Amino acid sequence: MSINNFLERTSVRSFKKHKVSKKDIDTITKVINNSPTSTNAQQFSAVIVLDDKLKDFIGTNNWNQQHIKDSNMFILFIADRSRSKTIAKKLKTPEDDQNYKTNEVMRSVVDATIAATYTQDALIEMGYGVTMVGGVYAFGHALDKKLNLPEESMAVVGLSVGKPKTIEAVKPKMNKVFINKFDKMENKKRITQYNEASKKYFVDERKRDDWLTGMKKASTKDSGMAQAFKKGGQYIADKAKKMGWGVTVLEIFLMISWVTNVPSYCSSEVNTSITKLFFLASSTRWKPSTMNIENLSLYFFLFNLAYWTIFSFCKDVIIFILYRHTKKRTY
After folding, report:
1. Same domain, yes or no, for 12 and 50?
2. Angle, nearest 10°, between helix axes 249-260 and 224-243?
3. In principle, which of 34, 105, 228, 233 could form an S-S bond with 138, CB 3.0–4.6 Å?
4. Is residue 87 classed as helix, strand or coil in its secondary structure?
């Protein structure tokens, strides 16, 4: 793939009618299977969707995105531990020793993302246009059922693929690269600089909000995106339970923040399941047998009980003091 293909890459959302050949499917399959995996653990899978009804279902459930419905094919990449579980059972290896390692959460998610990027590059070289769909996990439960995904898997990212009908200009890009050390002050400057530099593209040419305003609107609790991320957070919480991952508070925070890509200022709206997970996790590793919904509910209940008991006591003390103060002033 030439360097110009990387520098001129843009999301393609308008596709021609085209039937993907068996030869292209075979090539794409080989590319996906040849993508890098951490420690050769093979902890991701991909589903190539060609059926028009399935593509329509995915597009409808994913913010009703027309480019998914119109795509020549849609490829879903999933973090997949079902294979590892089968191997452990076959080798009679205790799951606590082989499967339930904290880093498997990130490893399988990262592997799926790497494979998606690797595949995107190959598809562009083959003459296809691609749009990455990063919000598929927000509708993960629907995808699990419709595509018969393993219980020990999680939808991570998808690709809308097709022969380009129209190709938009490359969006202005923010400089996200630092040399040797991250510079916080420079990072803040770049946010403002990018918002100003991209106004011509978003505001003048496309009659849309500027970048920061658009980000703010998308992140309000009543927006469709925030509501979808709320569902996505529940999906991740459910998968953490079913996949039996042992985790710490920090690792759960990193996993959810990175995978969901929700801005911190709207994270409180994501969902209560994240709070449950945070309270469940401790600085030590939890065994998979303790990672169940009963424990989540119990600990969340105890947390709420303690919180409201303390809150009620403090409230009563304040009211009593105010009452005494008022009484002294009255008499």
Report:
1. yes
2. 140
3. 228
4. helix
CATH of the domain at 65: 3.40.109.10
Nearest of 154, 32, 37 to residue 107 by alpha carbon: 37
The two three-digit tokens of residue 149, written as one number: 């995904």
Which tens digit of pLDDT belongs to each residue from 58-106?
A: 999 988 999 999 999 999 999 998 887 777 777 766 555 444 555 677 7
Helix axes 224-243, 272-280, angle to 10 degrees: 30
Q: How far apart are CA 122 and CA 128, in angstroms?
A: 9
Residue 221 is encoded by which pair of tokens?
């609790």
Amino acid at 47: V
Q: Which of 285, 283, 284, 292 is nearest to 244 (CA)?
A: 292
Size (the chain), residues: 331
Do 192 and 40 touch, CB atoms closer than 8 A?
Answer: no
Burial 308-325 (b: 16+ CB within 10 A, else e): eeeeeeeeeeeeeeeeee
Question: What pLDDT, in 10s, does the model give residues 168-222?
Answer: 889 999 999 999 999 999 999 999 999 999 999 999 988 889 999 988 887 776 6
Residues 99 and 244 grouped into a single domain: no
Q: Are 116 and 157 in contact (CB under 8 A)?
A: yes
**Domain enclosing residue 190, as ranges:** 171-219
Which spans in 71-102 are helix H? 82-90, 95-98
Quickly tell me which residue has 């997970």 as its tokens. Answer: 277
pLDDT digits (tens, 9 = 90+) for 95-115: 554 445 556 777 888 999 999
